[in-house]
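Support request, priority: normal
Reporter: lab tech (M.K.)
Component: structure prediction queue

Hi team, I submitted a job for N5,N10-methylene tetrahydromethanopterin reductase from Pandoraea oxalativorans yesterday, and the status page still shows it as pending. I've pasted the exact input below so you can check whether something in the sequence is tripping the parser. The sequence length should be 454 residues. Please let me know if I need to resubmit or if it's stuck on your end.
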Amino acid sequence: MPREIRLNAFEMNCVGHIQQGLWTHPRDQSTRYSELQYWVDYAKKLEKGLFDGMFFADVVGVYDVYGGNADAALRNAVQVPVNDPLMLIPAMAAATQHLGFGVTANLTYEQPFLFARRMSTLDHLTGGRIGWNIVTGYLDSAARAIGIEGQIAHDDRYDLADEYMSLVYKLWEGSWDDDAVLADRAGGVYADPSKVRVIHHHGKQYKVDAMHLSAPSPQRTPVLYQAGSSPRGCRFAATHAECVFVNGQKMDGVKEIVNTIREEAVKYGREASDVKVFMGATPIVGRTDAEAKEKFEEYRRYVSSEGALAHAAASLGIDFAKYDIDEPIDTGKSQAIVSNVTAMTRAAGPQWTRRKLLEQMVLGSRQTPWIGSAQTIADQMMAWSEATGIDGFNLSRTVVPECFEDVIDLVVPLLQERGAYKTSYGDGTYRKKLFGHDRLPQTHSAAQYRSGGK
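Reply from support: The job had stalled in the queue. We restarted it manually and it finished. Here are the results:
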């Protein structure tokens, strides 16, 4: 039997997400991002297509590396304006029954005690369909927005994140016993005080002496996503992540990352199957290869090269505006997304130029699109799944909603015919649908905090 392929829509609560400039396409509806009904209809569409989840990216700063200011980002709507993704989830959850929601939240700037409550609330309201994409940030503009002069060094951010995770695990897993809530009307006792404990955490970064404010939610800890594939990011993923998001590169590069993360997870006492890997992909689908190619050429007419460079400059930590079109670019040491720099070097070669970058960004991003008929795209998905060991794809939007309608109407039925895609949702929480259980397994590092709020 072929491997089952899982799909997430890769989104952001903004106009221009990954493929810069495509918001200007006359059929694109992403400028409706501030309308709640837009997101409700979107969620219904994805559930019709049996998508596992909607994966929300987020940033809490602006892309101001290119040219030393945010002008290019503002002109081209490069992830600005951007609204809070967490606010959308209850409405989308109320309109669906099974779709999961992975939301990005930057732990560097989120107070852990209050964040833990916010995620527990969402887990309650969604019936256990919430996931958290753990990020540590990469924008100096975000650091300055909260009063820090600049970004914390890359590996130091992960050290802070390890402590943060131990604290929120204590709150989610260790503060309330499973049977603490009695809801005894006759006796007038709602919760048994002997089964709710204060968490005492005195660490290098955080000091908390408090009980978790929320009663146990269906999953307790949300499904944990993480997107770093640098050496330090891989160690963090091996310790914490249940789902890992990787950038699409060459097959051997993705396979190496997948194997490394799973091997590291086993070293930490986990099972290799405890980690699912989703790869970013941008399909342009037609009923024939020729139709898909025609659609791609149409989309290309709306690409913003300036927007693409502004986005790349921030996520790679390099001001490309300082270089002429064929001048060699010094990649240096970046405190941005280290794995992005590595991936770009693999794609463009060790010596970058602006021309080489723009040649890579044919659709307004560093992600090379897949162009073809439904059969061609289904073949590619299955080939990547088998060759690399990935479990599914985070599908980046191009022109919405048609980009996801094409996948749902054309590609999904083919994958189902081949036995590579589910024909119905399973029961239960987001985690149960992905892994077969509601709670984190005993092999996960969070399990050590279940017995008594250490």
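The mean pLDDT is 92. Residues 6-178+191-287+366-445 form a domain with the TIM Barrel fold (CATH 3.20.20.30). Let us know if anything else looks off. Ticket resolved.
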